[in-house]
Amino acid sequence: MALHENEVRADEAVVRSLLREQRPEWAALPVSPAGAGTDNTMYRLGDHLLVRLPRAPDNAKAVREEQTWLPRLAPHLPCRIPEPVHEGVPGPAFPLAWSVYRWIDGDEAGPASVTDRAAFGSDLATVVRSLHSVPLMGATRQGGLSWYRGGGLRACDRWISGCFDACRTVQGLGLAHLRHLWQEALLLPEPSARHVWLHGDLRPANLLVQRGRLHAVIDFGGLSVGFPDAEHSPLWDLPPAARQTYRDALGLDDTTWLRARAWAVAVGISGVSYYRDTRPLFAGECLSRLRAVLEAAGER
Known about the structure:
alpha+beta
């Protein structure tokens, strides 16, 4: 099912056509579905490669940012991240930029794969600290590196308020309390920390685990430069023990934590609003995040 009005179709036949045109030495390798997110469709290519195709023109802009910056970020990070091995260009079969990466083995972070939740929170904090410490290397918050999650909350208020209105019929959501948490955070001082590199979407599906520990971070489609508050918002997707260990490891103060919680609300409510009819599974993940925010709303 199409998720976006301007979505571009990409199936196995498209992948094979692109390979024949641009990397014929790979064209005979086995191709199999490897998942589809809200922004990209993935196919495994042989045993060691992954083809990643953006769903829409706006997503293709992130492809170029990944190809440019991931090789420069990788040496600074304590875990594996995607390694581009081919910069795909638009062709007759597919009109957008696309990529081939080395395959990374691992299981999605979750109850079955994470054996020590506190240790996992510490591992993630180490990765985030390292990423936020990487020199900007001339990058600035403009163009493709200016994603909204690196800015301030107030700039998103009109949009997020509309998402709250669109979710009025969602049952059992605690909408009034969530809206209060959002509006309360709008009264906080705007962030003033230095700009840093941001992954932008550290939800469990983008965290790969081996032997119970964080092994790799994938999907840098939200790579940007900006304030770090929203980087912490997916913590409400993780168990409380991981969340608390992460916060303690990074020494996040109350104001930063409340802004991060507001970002968790914003991303969750916008996800429910946009995807509840077209991608119920992802909307369900967003609902789970919002319920976790409500359950932990007394934490400061």
